[in-house]
Amino acid sequence: xxxxxxxxxxxxxxxxxxxxxxxxxxxxxxxxxxxxxxxxxxxxxxxxxxxxxxxxxxxxxxxxxxxxxxxxxxxxxxxxxxxxxxxxxxxxxxxxxxxxxxxxxxxxxxxxxxxxxxxxxxxxxxxxxxxxxxxxxxxxxxxxxxxxxxxxxxxxxxxxxxxxxxxxxxxxxxxxxxxxxxxxxxxxxxxxxxxxxxxxxxxxxxxxxxxxxxxxxxxxxxxxxxxxxxxxxxxxxxxxxxxxxxxxxxxxxxxxxxxxxxxxxxxxxxxxxxxxxxxxxxxxxxxxxxxxxxxxxxxxxxxxxxxxxxxxxxxxxxxxxxxxxxxxxxxxxxxxxxxxxxxxxxxxxxxxxxxxxxxxxxxxxxxxxxxxxxxxxxxxxxx
Length: 383
Known about the structure:
- By secondary structure, the protein is α/β, with parallel strands linked by helices.
- The protein has three domains: 23-110, CATH 2.40.50.140; 116-275, Rossmann fold, CATH 3.40.50.300; 295-350, Orthogonal Bundle (Ribonucleotide Reductase Protein R1, domain 1), CATH 1.10.40.
- 31% of the residues lie in helices and 19% in strands.
- It has nine helices and 13 strands.
- The strands form three sheets. Strands 10-9-8-11-13-12 form a six-stranded mixed sheet, with helices on both faces. It has a five-stranded mixed β-barrel with strand order 1-2-3-5-4. A two-stranded antiparallel sheet has the order 6-7.
- Helix 3 (150-163) crosses helix 6 (288-294), helix 6 (288-294) packs across helix 7 and helix 7 (296-302) crosses helix 8 (319-325).
- 33% of the residues are buried.
């Protein structure tokens, strides 16, 4: 019997309809263009500009494509106007506005990113490195053997969640001898529901389970260590041997960097695939939202701590320690969370120091220019 005092059930909110596309944008649809991007492009307010997608990046400039057929031979464009910082500069997967002046194309603006996967740049400079932008799925590729590591998977998932990209764990080389129960236990230890796909990239039907994530017009990127088979998977998707592949060492499964740069390709089936070089480490950057997504129970329990800056170690009235004692999560899971949280805090401190040094250099530069102008003026007056 229905309860007359119960609140009426809400109808699901329909998905918003994207703005219509001009007819001249039709060639861009195969690159992932849509009405929302068209609206962002109009906000650039550059009447002479044309939209394009960044296919690859080199020191000499940015290779962009205006049409799906141009991916094989993209156009080299320079960045015009004020120099942007490393994060704001165009990256592979970005949409940009391009203007051709005297036969030379130039990028006049970067459209807002739907997603942006970042990691901490190597070294202690406290800088971010953009890996890839505007994805539908991030394929986190690992393989049976030494690379199948819980902590490595956690890092990629945190980065993916923080970037706003749906992750898919791809466990490759399932043709090797393996313990399926141990693999399933490792996935269970992640503590979150994430799609997991088992592949055999060298076998004819080895990528069948990946098909739900490879629809035409979708953008996917492959990340992972060297030697896990990313380039082999990409070659299978492209139905050609565009990317070099190599063997791995038997002692530790380490592979050589056969992929040297990030590059966007379009498969014969219409999927936009981005291969990335193997990463020895994935340093977390600005990833607190991703950490909370991967450890929701701990993050929720932290709201009950008595102290706002509780370190969850031995503080009184710690909601996290109480939740652990109640069996809501294990000590091992908490230790992994605290290690990652400490890394994020250290990275934030390094970033603050780096920004302070940068601002100090800019201030010194401004003072030097001012002194130079004053000196020239005095010399002129003395004459």
